[in-house]
């Protein structure tokens, strides 16, 4: 059984969220293992970025390389560009490969009907787009991977192909940054009760209930007057009393903020296998989250965090209040989350699982 000659990863925007982060982590791990690995983007942002349009992707694939696709702005064009017979792996980071355009269908009644021309979410040509993506999947017969069992089940149902579950992984520290050190570096009172919201787009992040963050915070502040809140991920910075607004920050800075916090508030409406949750676990930061999508595969309720019935904002606020006012509960959940994540969600394990998938496809 031979190793792949090389792996050619492809994603959309160079700085776009989880898909690009996973592609970079895999590329780095594969390069360390002696496998030639490269990464291209459709919208590069630096002078050395390899920007390749979806329809040109096939022409740039190195001979013998595994084509590992993470996301694209045009699935039909990119899939059409891959020559038949080429070893192809697709990681589903959301549902877009088998929908008419939406990353997460939520409760859309048209998903199981195959989408309709008059898409209720206004995606143009949704039914035809979905059919064309399915046609290309049947033509290429790629190996499909999904980070969560939840998404794997959906994809298998709609794409009529097996899907390998490979949970996301991140570099895991030997130990989390101490809360005392993190707060000292950020100038936070050691006795404060600190909560954190974070998402790409912050309060504009629709799938993360960004429009509800301030309301949740206001209710929590009324219950826990000594609480301090950070929001991270938007375009602006500022402060409104004990609500501190951070813009997008570098990953190292976010890790420091997480280490300084007591509780991550994660009222997500839809999720696959969130890197934010993994990054919080790596800093021993427990989360209160809605139990949607793949989130219950990351958080064990009452053991490494708290899961709340999706959309039950009152229960979400009560769970956060209970943790913040119960002394050692946040610390104990955070320590358990760190230990569980170190066993299950490392970048090394993720890279090894993908190598097995490459080998299996070569059989």
Present the secondary structure layout:
Layout: E1 6-13, H1 17-32, E2 36-43, H2 57-60, E3 66-69, H3 75-81, E4 88-91, H4 126-140, E5 143-146, H5 149-159, E6 163-165, H6 179-186, E7 193-198, H7 213-223, E8 227-234, E9 238-240, E10 243-247, H8 251-260, E11 263-266, H9 275-281, E12 287-290, E13 306-308, H10 313-324, H11 329-344, H12 347-362
Parallel strand pairs: 1-2, 1-3, 3-4, 4-5, 5-6, 7-8, 7-11, 8-10, 11-12, 12-13
Antiparallel strand pairs: 9-10
Summarize the structure.
This protein has twelve helices and 13 strands. The chain is of the alpha/beta class and 363 residues long.
Give the tags:
12 helices, six-stranded parallel β-sheet, Glycosyltransferase, 363 residues, 18% strand, Rossmann fold, seven-stranded mixed β-sheet
Contiguous runs where pLDDT drops below 50 for at least 5 residues: none
CATH class of the largest domain: Alpha Beta
CATH-level-4 superfamily name of the largest domain? Glycogen Phosphorylase B
Beta-strand proportion: 15-25%
SS-based structural class?
Answer: alpha/beta
What's the CATH topology label of the largest domain? Rossmann fold
Tally the beta strands: 13
Gyration radius, in Å:
21 Å
Please identify, by name, the CATH architecture of the largest domain.
3-Layer(aba) Sandwich
What is the chains' assembly state?
single chain
pLDDT averaged over residues = 93
Question: Tally the helices: what do you get?
Answer: 12
Global geometry: globular
Query: Biggest β-sheet, characterized?
Result: 7 strands, mixed
Distance between the termini: 8 Å
Order of helices and strands: EHEHEHEHEHEHEHEEEHEHEEHHH
Order of strands in the sheet with most strands: 9-10-8-7-11-12-13
- Assign a percent range to the helix content: 25-40%
Protein name: Glycosyltransferase
Keywords: Transferase
Pfam families: Glyco_trans_1_4 (PF13692)
GO molecular function: glycosyltransferase activity
